[in-house]
Write a structure and sequence with these properties.
mainly alpha, single chain, globular
């Protein structure tokens, strides 16, 4: 007869394996609930604070390079901060005077409109050409695709100041390459002495082409990376259904590129809205204020007129406008990220 003690099972009552002489085998407790006397292991304090330690350096850099300058900018915009305040370190409180002077300035609304138009033109041109180059990369062979990609990376990596000086040389009168080429065509007459920076439409054109030329590589390579992830089966199915290339691009490629297009659009708006180096080096906001944007106007007010308070007010207004322009796209981007999760 088998006793009750012999039939009891558990992690502490497991006996030796019959006929083998092996030591007792511990039986683990049933899953789902810890055994009696056992407690779930707590996370150590060091482990729970590890993300904070990892994020601390980046947070400190952001505080030093972004948050503090922005707060300081807002403070200066409410002060009578001029050339005297730089040497004395003392600036009186001006209230809303700087903002009132800026908003009632005759140049304010034309500059706002011009900045929006210039930004929209740059973003639209960059996206259209970038999408075209991305589509071209998908149709090139390995060798040519590598060559084009390297050329795009080199153009994108070129510093703004260096590329602006090269652009300035291309459009220079007397010895500019472009004027020489136009003259050699013998169709438009002699344009050797044509100064592109002295005509509003031409000045706007050279600034626009320079910024687009610098921004297209990033957009094209980013869109190509996203487009290369689309499964080829979709295009094979579309070809079997008799769809044209444009129909497949519209029905397959564009929906797949929508999140990436949204991202590059946000970045392009931010970058093009804040363009300064190219405009200042090529036209300095002229001629006739044709290329005077908010960034150039801020610099002129601050460092040419020594009205640093008004310049800070313009910068704060520019930040607010940029936030309004990008808020819709940022909300869309956040929602798409939540849907992916």
């Amino acid at each position: 007869m088998t006793s009750t003690a012999d039939t009891a099972t558990g992690p502490a009552s497991a006996g030796p394996v019959a006929g083998t002489g092996q030591p007792p085998v511990a039986v683990p407790p049933p899953p789902g609930r810890p055994g009696r006397g056992l407690r779930p292991r707590r996370r150590s304090v060091t482990t729970s604070r590890a993300p904070l330690f990892l994020l601390a350096p980046a947070a400190l850099i952001l505080l030093a390079l972004v948050v503090y300058p922005l707060v300081r900018l807002v403070v200066i915009s409410f002060q009578e901060y001029g050339l005297r305040a730089i040497f004395t370190g003392q600036a009186g409180f001006a209230g809303l005077t700087n903002y009132t002077n800026v908003l009632t300035d005759g140049s304010f609304w034309p500059v706002i409109l011009r900045t929006v138009v210039v930004t929209a033109s740059m973003v639209l041109g960059t996206l259209v050409i970038g999408m075209a180059v991305s589509q071209l990369l998908t149709r090139l062979g390995v060798v040519m695709r590598t060559v084009v990609s390297v050329v795009l990376v080199l153009a994108w990596a070129m510093p703004n100041v260096a590329s602006s000086l090269v652009w300035q040389w291309l459009f220079q009168p007397f010895y500019g390459v472009l004027n020489w080429l136009i003259t050699q065509l013998r169709v438009f007459g002699d344009h050797t002495q044509d100064n592109w920076a002295s005509h509003p439409a031409q000045a706007y054109t050279i600034v626009l082409t320079l910024v687009i030329w610098q921004a297209v590589p990033f957009v094209a390579l980013t869109l190509y990376a996203a487009q290369s992830q689309i499964a080829p089966e979709y295009y094979e199915a579309g070809a079997l259904d008799g769809a044209t290339t444009w129909a497949m691009y519209r029905a397959i490629t564009l929906p797949a590129l929508a999140p990436t297009l949204l991202l590059v659009t946000i970045l392009s708006v931010i970058w093009d809205f804040n363009v300064f180096n190219q405009i200042w080096l090529l036209t300095r906001g002229g001629p006739e204020d044709a290329t005077l944007t908010l960034g150039i106007w801020t610099f002129v007010k601050s460092f040419v007129s020594n009205a640093y308070g008004q310049g800070a007010a313009i910068a704060v207004i520019s930040t607010a406008i940029l936030g309004v322009l990008t808020s819709y796209y940022i909300r869309r981007l956040v929602r798409s990220g939540e849907e992916d999760l």
